TrEMBL record:
<dbReference type="InterPro" id="IPR020449">
    <property type="entry name" value="Tscrpt_reg_AraC-type_HTH"/>
</dbReference>
<dbReference type="InterPro" id="IPR018060">
    <property type="entry name" value="HTH_AraC"/>
</dbReference>
<dbReference type="Pfam" id="PF00072">
    <property type="entry name" value="Response_reg"/>
</dbReference>
<dbReference type="Pfam" id="PF12833">
    <property type="entry name" value="HTH_18"/>
</dbReference>
<feature type="domain" description="Response regulatory">
    <location>
        <begin position="3"/>
        <end position="120"/>
    </location>
</feature>
<dbReference type="InterPro" id="IPR009057">
    <property type="entry name" value="Homeodomain-like_sf"/>
</dbReference>
<keyword id="KW-0804">Transcription</keyword>
<dbReference type="InterPro" id="IPR001789">
    <property type="entry name" value="Sig_transdc_resp-reg_receiver"/>
</dbReference>
<feature type="modified residue" description="4-aspartylphosphate">
    <location>
        <position position="55"/>
    </location>
</feature>
<protein>
    <submittedName>
        <fullName>Response regulator</fullName>
    </submittedName>
</protein>
<keyword id="KW-0597">Phosphoprotein</keyword>
<keyword id="KW-0238">DNA-binding</keyword>
<dbReference type="InterPro" id="IPR018062">
    <property type="entry name" value="HTH_AraC-typ_CS"/>
</dbReference>
<keyword id="KW-0805">Transcription regulation</keyword>
<dbReference type="InterPro" id="IPR051552">
    <property type="entry name" value="HptR"/>
</dbReference>
<dbReference type="InterPro" id="IPR011006">
    <property type="entry name" value="CheY-like_superfamily"/>
</dbReference>
<feature type="domain" description="HTH araC/xylS-type">
    <location>
        <begin position="449"/>
        <end position="546"/>
    </location>
</feature>
C-alpha cells in the first residue's frame, strides 16, 4: 500500500478530494494533507510519501519551487502538478523539474484516476527493481568513492559523530579505521605548474598525484583520502600493522621508539611523494605532514593546523615539505566559522529571512563565548561582516544605510562586548525590516494597479506570461503577489472581470453569444457557455431571455 501527499493553500480543494476520490482503488492507504509548501516539506521529512500532488499557485512557496526542493532531496519521488487555466502554459515548464503530469483545475476525476494508475504502477515497478540485491550492491560500489570522500570532508570540517555512529559508517564504507585510532594527516597542494591547465587537465593531475601518494603510503599505512573545498588533497594515515610495513612489532621495541619510527617512515614517504611528483609529472607540490592525534577527537585540529601552515607559505616552482610533528603547539586563537556559513548574511537579507538572521546572531554570541581566547579582533571581524551585509542590502535597494536607519545607528567606534554588538545588530535588523517592507509595499501596490489595468484592456488575449511581461516580473511572483494583495488568485480575478463584462454585454448589447465569447478571449463559445453556467447557474442565452 502507498501514501500520498496533497498540497494546496485552498483547504477545501484537498479536503473534498480526500473524501470524494476512491483512493483505495489505486492501493493508496494513507493520505497526508498540507496547506502550504513549507508544511509539505515538513511532512516529507517525517513521513514516507510515495506520490505528491500539489497546486502550482500558492503563496510563499509555489508548486514548482516545492517540487524543485523535493527533487533536490528525493529525485525519484513522483510529483503531479495542479494548475489553473491561466497558469497552464507556464505549467508546461514543469517537465524540466521531473513532474509526472500536470492536470487542469477544476480537476477532472477521470484524468486524475488515469494519472494515478500509471504512477502507482511505475512506483511498484521501481520497488521491484530496487529489491534486486545485485543492483543495490552495484549502486553502492559505484558511489562508494564519493561516500568516502564526503565523510572525510565532513570530519575535517568539524562534523561530529558519536563513536558508535562513526565506527558504523567506517565499517559500512569498508574503511580500515576506527574512531579512536591514532592517525596523521598529509595535506597536498598542487602548485603553479598544474594550475596553468584547464579544469579537466587539473583533475587528471590530481588523480595522478593521488595514485602516486597511495602507492607510496600503502606500503606501510592504511590510507583514506579526499579533495577538500579548497581543492587540496587530504590523506589520512594510520600504521598498517604487522606484515604491511617494516616496523618492528616485537616486545623488545618500546612504544615511543615505535611511534618515532612510524613518524620517520611517514616523513620519508612524504618526501618521496614530493620528489616523485616533481620527477614524473614535472610539477611541484607542497606537502604538510600534521601532528598525530586520535581520528574522532583531533582530526579537525590536525587539518586546521596543516591548512594554516599551508596558507602561511607560498610554494615556489617545486613546492615544499613541512612537518608539524616536532613544532606543533596547541593554538588558542580560533576562527568564527559561523560568520561564513551558507546561507550568507547577504543572502538572508536578500530573501527577507529575518528570523533566521536573528537566530544566526544568537549562534554568533554563543560561538564567540566558546572561544578559548575572546579578542577585540574577533569583535571587529563580526562587526565588519554584519555591517557589510547591512550596507549591501541598503545599496541594493538604492538607498544609503544611514538614510534607512539613521546616522546614529551606523557605528563609528568598535564594540567592547559581543552582547553590545549583537544587540546593535538586532536593532539594526528591525529598523531595516520596517523600512524595506514599507518600500516594498508601495512598489507592490503599484504593480497590482498595473496588472488590473492591463487585464481590463486585454481580456481578449490574456495569459499569465503576457501579464508578467507587462510588469517585467516572473510569472510565479506575479501570481503569488496578486493572491497576497487581493485575497484571490489572478485566474479568479480574470474570471470575475470577464463575467462582469459578459453580464454587461448580455444586458446592453445585441452581440451574439459567440461574439461576446470572442471579446472575452474564449476561442470556444461552448467553453464560455460552460464557464458562465458554472458561475451563474444558467446559460448566457437563458440569462439574456430572463
Amino acid at each position: 500500500m502507498h501514501q500520498i501527499l496533497l498540497v494546496d493553500d485552498e483547504s477545501y480543494v484537498i479536503d473534498d478530494l480526500e473524501i470524494s476520490f476512491p483512493w483505495d482503488q489505486y492501493r493508496i492507504e494513507v493520505i497526508h494533507k498540507a496547506y502550504s509548501g513549507m508544511q509539505a516539506l515538513s511532512i516529507l521529512e517525517e513521513q514516507t510519501v510515495d506520490i505528491v500532488i500539489t497546486d502550482i499557485s500558492m503563496p510563499v512557496m509555489n508548486g514548482l519551487e516545492l517540487i524543485r526542493q523535493i527533487k533536490a532531496v528525493k529525485p525519484n519521488l513522483p510529483c503531479i502538478l495542479l494548475t489553473g487555466y491561466a497558469e497552464f502554459e507556464y505549467a508546461k515548464e514543469a517537465t524540466k523539474y521531473g513532474v509526472v503530469e500536470y492536470l487542469l483545475k477544476p480537476l477532472d476525476v477521470e484524468k486524475l484516476a488515469s494519472c494515478l494508475e500509471k504512477t502507482v504502477l511505475s512506483i511498484e515497478e521501481q520497488i521491484r527493481r530496487a529489491l534486486s540485491y545485485e543492483q543495490a550492491m552495484n549502486s553502492f560500489r559505484e558511489h562508494l568513492p564519493s561516500l568516502k570522500d564526503r565523510l572525510l570532508n565532513q570530519l575535517i570540517e568539524g562534523n561530529r559523530y558519536s563513536e558508535d555512529v562513526l565506527n558504523d559508517k567506517l565499517g559500512h564504507y569498508q574503511l580500515p579505521f576506527s574512531a579512536e585510532d591514532n592517525v596523521q594527516l598529509v595535506l597536498v597542494r598542487l602548485e603553479e605548474h598544474f594550475t596553468r591547465y584547464t579544469t579537466t587537465s587539473l583533475q587528471l593531475f590530481e588523480y595522478a598525484v593521488t595514485n602516486i601518494a597511495c602507492e607510496l603510503f600503502n606500503t606501510a599505512f592504511h590510507t583514506w583520502h579526499c579533495r577538500d573545498h579548497y581543492d587540496y588533497l587530504v590523506f589520512l594515515l594510520k600504521p598498517a600493522g604487522p606484515g604491511a610495513s617494516e616496523i618492528d612489532t616485537s616486545p623488545e621495541t618500546n612504544h615511543s621508539e615505535q611511534i618515532t619510527k612510524q613518524s620517520k617512515d611517514l616523513t620519508h614517504l612524504s618526501l618521496q611523494l614530493h620528489h616523485n611528483v616533481n620527477e614524473y609529472l614535472k610539477g611541484g607540490i607542497s606537502v604538510i605532514l600534521s601532528h598525530g592525534g586520535r581520528l574522532q577527537h583531533d582530526i579537525r585540529d590536525m587539518y586546521e593546523q596543516a591548512l594554516s601552515a599551508l596558507k602561511k607559505q607560498v610554494g615556489n616552482g617545486t613546492g615544499y615539505f613541512l612537518s608539524l610533528e616536532e613544532s606543533y603547539r596547541p593554538v588558542s586563537i580560533r576562527s568564527l566559522h559561523i560568520l561564513y556559513e551558507p546561507p550568507t548574511f547577504n543572502h538572508l537579507l536578500e530573501t527577507a529571512q529575518w528570523e533566521v538572521f536573528k537566530e544566526r546572531l544568537h549562534r554568533i554570541k554563543i560561538g564567540y563565548s566558546a572561544l578559548p581566547e575572546q579578542t577585540e579582533e574577533h569583535l571587529d571581524e563580526i562587526q565588519i561582516v554584519l555591517l557589510s551585509a547591512f550596507h549591501y542590502i541598503a545599496h541594493k535597494n538604492q538607498a544609503l544605510l544611514s538614510d534607512l536607519v539613521g546616522n546614529e545607528w551606523v557605528p563609528r567606534v568598535p564594540f567592547r562586548s559581543v552582547s553590545q554588538l549583537t544587540d546593535w545588530a538586532d536593532n539594526m535588523l528591525d529598523r531595516l525590516r520596517i523600512k524595506l517592507e514599507e518600500q516594498s509595499f508601495d512598489e507592490q501596490h503599484d504593480v497590482i494597479h498595473q496588472i488590473k489595468t492591463f487585464v481590463s484592456a486585454n481580456l481578449h488575449s490574456l495569459s499569465l506570461q503576457s501579464i508578467a511581461d507587462h510588469v517585467s516580473l516572473h510569472p510565479v511572483y506575479v501570481s503569488k503577489l496578486f493572491k497576497q494583495f487581493q485575497g484571490i488568485s489572478l485566474s479568479e480575478y480574470i474570471l470575475s472581470v470577464k463575467m462582469d463584462l459578459a453580464l454587461y454585454l448580455l444586458n446592453h448589447s445585441q452581440d451574439k453569444i459567440y461574439e461576446i465569447s470572442e471579446k472575452l478571449g474564449y476561442a470556444n463559445s461552448q467553453y464560455f457557455i460552460k464557464v458562465f453556467r458554472d458561475k451563474f447557474g444558467m446559460t448566457p442565452q437563458e440569462y439574456r431571455e430572463q
